[in-house]
Design a protein that fits this description.
This protein is α/β, with parallel strands linked by helices. It is built from 19 helices and 11 strands. The structure holds 6-O-phosphono-beta-D-fructofuranose.
């Protein structure tokens, strides 16, 4: 069967009524739930049926998902437009043995540097000021915020925006002589990061810090550029070119996370991710969490034409997960051409958005329940709380999370007053974590990475390049270098008014 025939078969499957989907299917819950890596995945409140699952497995076969997955793990050049492998799994010990061994060597180097900082080789370090943007910030920020906020080890600030207000805020909290500057950039050329790094150096100099460059650690796939900038080779922590920016938190880019959590916890994060790697690589598609999640994504994007999907973390520890996923999913799969450069035959990545429960219930849930858009919702909650307050807090949090999923699905009729009617039939997935631990968080993030990859294969696109971000950067550089020339009247006027 080819791809088109597989899609035709999917489109022919009847669309089930969600409200009554459990009524005639006593086995539905067990058929559409799966526990892996401390996470219980529940797709039972989606439109997925056993027949649809089979049709999607046909699609996966037609698109060569088994082969593509193996090529990914073997370290083949799956990033076809750039002729590169995508080897983030090697960072956690999975995949091509040579890449795994290279990653291990680099991790040992990272660990030795962390030991040196802890052993006061840099004097008394209390503050870690990490500058980086995109994949060089979002992953570490998520981990530090979820697991390192109360570790009592180092006070970590991760500054990404070029808006000086962001850096100023971190500087106001930190003592320059007790600060380690961590410059994270795969390319070591990113404007925002290099300007922020330079401003931190100036701040240190103005405070009389001796040898500020001696307090810099560089995390990069371009070590020679970091050295040119002034970082001594012994303080450069390299990672491989084949580790994509948004997949890099497992490499030396995870340095601030390892500092905040401690090395053992960082290793547990890698181990949790590795367990998810093995699951994705080996499990049958009918029982494969990232693959099933991708089937559901494809169904809503292409059959139900949903343009967005929403992720709500019912756990304060995971409050940065939606913004992390925005880069992972939209930068990876927000494309319009196939791997061969042909126009894609349907919508690609939906817009990922979301927030934190229960806050979001009082802001955006109106639209989810009664708006004219159908938005597939993903709820993420943990059985164990992240605090020691009255258990009523956590009970209320979880009750609300589960109530929302039920309400979206079942709705409520109101013949007398349409404004008070809830259409129901609205899909949701729930990911219930045993707890938010390094291991489980590692598994969760790896699940999202592989789901993104599986989606890309089903759509026949390359998830590992990001040329879409280049044009705007290029234009900004040309304005900075040569001044505004030849733009439309609106752009010319804005530059003139604001920059003179
Ligand atoms: O502009 C997008 C991007 O290239 C991301 O893919 C990347 O994570 C980010 O910029 C930062 O890049 P770098 O790590 O090279 O500074």
């Amino acid at each position: 069967m080819d791809r088109k025939a597989a899609w035709d078969a999917i489109n022919k499957e009847p669309v089930p009524e969600l409200k009554s989907i459990f009524a005639n299917n006593p086995d539905r819950l067990s058929a559409f739930t799966l526990a892996k890596g401390g996470i219980r995945f529940d797709w039972s409140k989606t439109h997925l049926t056993p027949a649809l699952m089979d049709r999607f497995v046909d699609l996966a076969d037609a698109t060569g998902l088994v082969k593509a997955r193996e090529a990914l793990f073997q370290g083949e050049a799956v990033n076809v437009s750039e002729g590169r492998a995508a080897e983030h799994m090697a960072e956690r010990g999975e995949g091509n043995p040579e890449s795994v061994s290279r990653a291990k060597t680099l991790h040992n180097r990272m660990r030795a540097l962390i030991d040196a900082v802890e052993g006061e080789a840099f004097g008394s370090v209390r503050h870690i000021l990490h500058v980086g943007i995109g994949g060089s910030a979002l992953g570490p920020n998520l981990i530090v915020d979820a697991l390192g906020r109360h570790s009592g080890r180092y006070d970590v600030a991760i500054v990404s925006n070029v808006d000086g207000a962001a850096l100023e805020e971190a500087m106001a909290r930190f003592d320059p002589s007790a600060t380690l500057l961590v410059v994270a950039s795969k390319t070591f050329t990113t404007t925002e990061t290099m300007l922020n790094a330079q401003s931190v150096i100036t701040w240190m100099i103005e405070d009389g810090v001796d040898d500020p460059y001696g307090r810099v650690i560089a995390l990069t796939a371009s070590p020679e550029k970091a050295m040119e900038w002034g970082v001594d080779e012994t303080r450069v922590l390299p990672f491989g070119e084949s580790v994509g920016g948004r997949y890099s938190l497992w490499s030396s880019i995870g340095f601030p996370a390892a500092m905040a959590l401690g090395w053992d916890a960082f290793e547990s994060l890698l181990e949790g991710a590795a367990a998810m790697d093995r699951h994705f690589r080996l499990a049958d598609f009918h029982k494969n969490a990232p693959v099933i999640a991708a089937f559901v994504d494809q169904y809503y994007a292409r059959v139900m034409q949903c343009q967005t999907r929403a992720v709500f973390a019912y756990d304060e520890r995971l409050r940065l997960l939606p913004s992390y996923l925005q880069q992972l999913e939209m930068e990876s799969n927000g494309k319009s051409v196939t791997k061969d450069g042909k126009p894609v035959d349907g919508p690609t990545a939906p817009i990922t958005w979301g927030g934190v429960g229960t806050d979001a219930q009082h802001a955006v849930f109106q639209l989810l329940h009664q708006g004219s858009h159908i938005v597939p919702v993903e709820f993420i909650a943990a059985i164990e709380p992240g605090h020691s307050l009255d258990p009523a807090h956590h009970d209320t949090l979880l009750v609300n999370c589960f109530a929302q999923g039920a309400a979206l699905m079942q709705g409520r009729e109101n013949a007398d007053d349409p404004a008070r009617a809830y259409p129901g039939n609205r899909p949701s997935t729930t990911l219930l974590l045993d707890d938010v631990t390094p291991e489980i968080l590692g598994a969760l993030i790896a699940f999202y990475e592989h789901r993104t990859f599986a989606n890309a294969v089903l759509m026949d696109i390359n998830p590992f390049d990001q040329f879409g971000v280049e044009l705007g950067k290029e234009i900004a550089r040309s304005i900075e270098k040569d001044g505004p020339k030849g733009f439309d009247p609106s752009t010319m006027a804005l530059i003139e008014l604001a920059l003179g």
